[in-house]
Amino acid sequence: MFDNRPPFSLFSLSPPPQSGQLNEYTERKEMSADVVCMSLAKVQPGEQRSRLVSVGLVDNTVCIISLDPSNCLQPLSMQALPAQPESLCIVEMGGVEKEDELGVKGTVGFLYLNIGLQVRFLSCDVLRQGLKRGSFSCLFTD
Fold first, then answer.
1. Cα separation, 48 vs 50, whole angstroms
2. Are 25 and 13 contacting, i.e. CB atoms less than 8 angstroms apart?
3. Which of 1, 3, 19, 41 has the maximal Cβ count within 10 Å?
4. Which superkingdom, per the lineage (predicted)?
5. Whole-angstrom distance, CA of residue 58 vs CA of residue 89
6. How many CB atoms lie within 10 A of CB 75?
7. How far apart are CA 68 and CA 70, in angstroms?
């Protein structure tokens, strides 16, 4: 069976002094179905890139993919939905000020994934974020 679906590609803008240069990563992620929507998580203070992307697929699923350089484009979690996703939005709420192991202060909260479905329904799921840098465990809840 021939599959003509293009792979998921990652692009980034270079940091200063070469600001504005578009870089394409050589690694690709084959998706199980066509991508219909996506959302990037907020870039954390002191970081230059988001660590998560949520991807909505035409087969009624949402996949959370790592953008961390140590495991870039690795799937972290997947959820089946009752209808096709139409929009996604990752937001951080309920923050508490914390200090990490390096003494850097910042706000740590819960990441919420809002999923808009084609059937005019909004699902809100919690992505649990670890306190250590780079450690995310994703758990979808109803």
1. 7
2. no
3. 41
4. Eukaryota
5. 17
6. 15
7. 5
How many Cα neighbours within 13 Å face the side chain of 86? 10
Reduced to 3 states, what is the DSSP secondary structure of residue 71? helix
- Ranges of the chain whose pLDDT falls below 50: 1-2, 130-142
- Nearest to 89, CA basis, from 140, 39, 15, 21: 39
Please report the pLDDT score of residue 48 as a whole number: 78
Predicted confidence at residue 24, as pLDDT, reads 81
pLDDT at 88 (0 to 100):
95
**Pair 33, 52: CB distance under 8 Å:** no
**Radius of gyration of the CA atoms of the chain, in A:** 16
Pair type for strands 35-40 and 52-57:
antiparallel
Say how many residues make up the chain.
142
Question: Which amino acid is residue 55, in one-letter code?
Answer: V
DSSP conformation class of 123: E
Under DSSP, the state recorded for 3 is -
